[in-house]
Each structure stands twice: as structure tokens, then as C-alpha cells.
């Protein structure tokens, strides 16, 4: 356990750099982009990115959890990890082919997609690049530093490209093109690195192996769908009901929230394979690690939420300009989310999934998705972008409290208290 801590810290730092730069680079270009393309075009780009994200959700399936968990538990078994990686990656390629065909059909037959066909056709590059970046496998192997370096370099490359090519609102589609270029670049480089540096038995997978991986990832994919119902679906509904400008205000505020939360994502992603392995082999060590990591996670998330709320006006006006001032109250409403979501992440990703309570995890998220669908249109009709933020806040509170209540019911907190007294 002691020897593995340096690797865990390295993984956290590597993932943290990627996550943070993933939000920081758009933040650095934000003052230029928002003032150059305007509120409506900014809203359009944001909505297209979210919709492309839905297609990425399908290609990711549930491998981020199911694949990572299996690789982490058997990473020293070369034949096993090779079989899982190749079968799951082949499944991603098949899913990718299907979603690209669906996207093309939507562009051809649906006027909403046809109106922005250049955006969506360029978005295919983002989908392909995402498939070629099997982060779930690298997380399971706890070997992600090199991939992080590749991703960081490709994202830094996007900075000059935005300033060189985006000159007016008519160039908004180039924001998607640049995203596709960097996604493909990092994807190709990562696959090349895996091929040359990780010991994989390369062979064609059987249809049975592919089917097994899709089946096992399906339950986790279901949880991703429920999460989508109360997260990224919100700005899409907002755009349809209240218009592109309202969606732009919400998306802007949520980007700042995501930036604050990006400090926590790498800790969660690095901990998940470790927690999955420890809960399988040594429950006591798993709970000890959970206690130590939770203190750090909650301290960071509480500071992030407080800072967002205090400096919301300064953040929005400084980075986006006066035209985006309606995003200030939206950011204030979203400010508690880093702390609330950090709690639900500890309860769900670091406890429920590693102890094989996937059914209960999905059940809570399914109810949350239904709750969001029942509230979102009335709230948006009453308060526009602020109503959307209220919807998100209420649903995330429900998820966190529901997971806490279930863990209390099964006596998990009592067992943690015993471990704490032993420390």
C-alpha cells in the first residue's frame, strides 16, 4: 500500500493537469471568443458541443467504470487485460460507427441539425478522437502520465489556432473544427504509445467477447444516461424553450463551475480503480484510504464552492464581458455544486460501485433523472436560465442525500466510524 501511494499521487497530478487544462485553456480564450462571436454564436457552439457529447457518451458506454474496474483488479495478468482491452475497444469502434451513421441521418432529415451541419460534421472528428483515447484502460493500469502529456500538448496547441482562425461570428464553426483536430491528435498519439509501450497481446476479438463487454458496461451506461437527464440535457432544453442566449448564459456559468470542479475529477478517477481493487482484496485498507482522501476532497470542494459564490460577478464580467452579466446569478446558484457533487461522488463512485451496489446506484440516478424531467420545463418557463440552475441544484441535492441515506441504512457509516476509532 505504501509503495503504491507515489503512483496514486502521480496519477492524480497527471489527470489533474489534463482536467484543469481542459477547462483552463477555454477560459484563457474566453474573453476573446465571447467578444468575437457574441452571445448567440457562443450558445450555438456550446449546444453543439453538448450534443456531440451525447454521441461520445454512447461510445464510452460503461467502460469508464466496468472496464477500469476489471483492468484494475487483474492488471498483472497479461492475457486477461489484453482480452478485456481489445474486446472493449472493438466495442467502442462498433458503437462509434453506429453513432456516426445516426448523426449523418439526423443532419440529412432533421432541420435543426441540417441548419448547423458544418458544426456537426466537424464534430465527427471529436467522436473518433474520443474513441482513440481509451482513458478507461490507462486508468485501470494506473499508467496515465504519458497519455496526460500527449493530451496537454494537443490542448495547448488549440490556443494559437483559436486566435489565428476565429475572427467573427461566422467563424464559430471553427471552434468545433479545432476541438476535432486536437481530439484526433491526442487520440492517435495515445494509441501509438499504447501499441509501443504496453505489453498487449494484439489479436482479433470474438463477437462473444465484445458482447460480454457491452453487456457488462450496460448497467454503468444506464447510470450515465440518468446523469445526462439532469446535467447536460438541461442547457439543451433551455435552448429550445428560452432561446440560444439563455442557453449561452447557463453554459458559461456552468463552464466556470466545471473549472472549479476539475480539481476534484482527477482525484476521483485515480481513486476509483484503487478503491475497486482494495474493496475486493482488503476492506480495511479501502476504508482507511477512503477516510484520508475524503478529507482532502471535501476541503478542496468547499473552498471551490465558496470562491465561486463570492467572486461570481468578477469572474463572469472579467472573462466574458458585460453582455454576459445575466450569467452572474446563474453562477451563484451553481456555486454549491462542487461541494455537493464531491459528496455524491464519494458515496457513489468511491463506495457504492466498488462494493457492487450498481443496481442501487442506478436506481437513485434514475429517480433523479425523472425528477429533473418533471421540474425542468416549469422552472425554465418561470425563471429561464436561473430556473435551469435551480433544477440542477435541487436534483444534485436529491442524489447526494439519497446515496447518504442508503449507506446509512446498510450500516456503512457505522463501519467507517469503527475504522476511524482504530486510526
Walk me through what this model shows.
It is globular and about 55 Å long. It contains 18 helices and no strands. The chain has one domain. Helix 1 packs parallel to helix 3. It has 423 residues and is mainly alpha-helical. It is a multi-pass membrane protein. InterPro entries: Poly_Biosynth_Transport, Polysacc_synth. It is found in: Cell membrane.
Ordered list of secondary-structure elements with their pairings:
Layout: H1 4-60, H2 66-73, H3 78-109, H4 111-115, H5 117-131, H6 135-140, H7 145-165, H8 173-197, H9 207-230, H10 233-242, H11 244-261, H12 265-281, H13 283-310, H14 312-320, H15 327-334, H16 337-352, H17 358-409, H18 412-422
Unreliable stretches (pLDDT < 50, length at least 5) are none
Number of strands: 0
What Rg is obtained from the alpha carbons, in whole angstroms? 21 Å
Put simply, the count of helices is 18
What would the principal axes of the Cα set say about the shape? globular
User: In total, how many domains does the architecture comprise?
Assistant: 1
From the structure above, extract its key features.
single chain; 423 residues; mainly alpha; 86% helix; globular
Task: Describe the structure in brief.
The protein is an all-alpha fold and 423 residues long. It has helices at residues 4-60, 66-73, 78-109, 111-115, 117-131, 135-140, 145-165, 173-197, 207-230, 233-242, 244-261, 265-281, 283-310, 312-320, 327-334, 337-352, 358-409, 412-422. The chain starts with a helix and ends with a helix.
Amino acid at each position: 500500500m505504501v509503495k503504491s501511494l507515489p503512483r496514486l499521487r502521480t496519477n492524480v497530478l497527471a489527470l489533474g493537469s489534463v482536467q484543469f487544462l481542459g477547462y483552463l485553456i477555454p477560459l484563457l480564450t474566453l474573453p476573446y471568443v465571447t467578444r468575437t462571436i457574441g452571445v448567440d454564436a457562443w450558445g450555438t457552439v456550446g449546444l453543439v458541443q453538448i450534443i456531440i457529447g451525447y454521441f461520445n457518451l454512447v461510445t464510452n458506454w460503461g467502460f469508464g467504470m466496468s472496464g477500469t474496474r476489471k483492468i484494475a483488479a487483474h492488471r498483472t495478468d497479461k492475457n486477461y487485460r489484453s482480452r478485456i482491452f481489445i474486446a472493449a475497444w472493438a466495442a467502442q469502434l462498433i458503437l462509434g460507427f453506429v453513432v456516426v451513421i445516426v448523426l449523418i441521418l439526423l443532419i440529412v432529415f432533421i432541420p435543426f441539425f441540417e441548419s448547423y451541419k458544418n458544426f456537426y460534421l466537424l464534430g465527427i472528428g471529436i467522436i473518433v478522437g474520443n474513441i482513440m483515447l481509451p482513458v478507461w484502460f490507462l486508468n485501470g493500469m494506473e499508467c496515465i502520465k504519458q497519455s496526460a502529456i500527449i493530451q496537454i500538448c494537443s490542448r495547448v496547441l488549440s490556443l494559437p489556432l483559436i486566435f489565428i482562425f476565429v475572427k467573427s461570428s461566422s467563424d464559430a464553426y471553427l471552434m468545433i473544427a479545432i476541438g476535432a483536430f486536437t481530439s484526433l491528435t491526442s487520440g492517435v498519439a495515445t494509441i501509438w504509445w499504447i501499441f509501443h509501450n504496453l505489453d498487449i497481446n494484439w489479436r482479433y476479438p470474438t463477437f462473444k467477447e465484445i458482447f460480454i463487454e457491452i453487456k457488462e458496461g450496460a448497467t454503468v451506461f444506464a447510470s450515465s444516461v440518468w446523469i445526462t437527464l439532469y446535467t447536460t440535457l438541461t442547457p439543451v432544453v433551455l435552448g429550445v424553450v428560452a432561446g440560444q442566449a439563455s442557453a449561452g448564459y447557463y453554459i458559461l456559468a456552468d463552464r466556470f463551475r466545471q473549472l472549479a470542479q476539475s480539481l476534484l475529477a482527477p482525484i476521483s478517477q485515480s481513486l476509483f480503480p484503487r478503491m475497486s481493487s482494495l474493496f475486493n482484496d482488503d476492506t480495511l485498507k479501502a476504508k482507511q484510504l477512503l477516510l484520508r482522501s475524503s478529507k482532502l476532497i471535501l476541503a478542496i470542494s468547499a473552498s471551490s464552492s465558496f470562491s465561486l459564490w463570492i467572486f461570481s460577478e468578477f469572474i463572469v464580467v472579467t472573462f466574458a464581458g458585460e453582455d454576459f452579466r445575466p450569467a452572474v446569478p446563474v453562477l451563484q446558484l451553481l456555486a454549491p455544486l462542487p461541494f455537493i457533487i464531491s459528496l455524491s461522488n464519494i458515496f457513489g463512485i468511491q463506495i457504492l460501485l466498488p462494493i457492487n451496489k450498481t443496481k442501487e446506484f442506478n436506481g437513485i440516478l434514475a429517480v433523479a433523472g425523472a425528477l429533473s424531467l418533471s421540474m425542468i420545463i416549469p422552472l425554465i418557463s418561470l425563471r429561464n436560465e436561473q430556473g435551469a440552475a435551480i433544477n440542477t441544484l435541487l436534483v444534485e441535492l436529491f442524489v447526494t442525500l439519497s446515496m447518504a441515506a442508503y449507506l446509512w441504512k446498510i450500516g456503512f457509516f457505522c463501519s467507517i466510524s469503527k475504522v476511524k476509532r482504530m486510526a
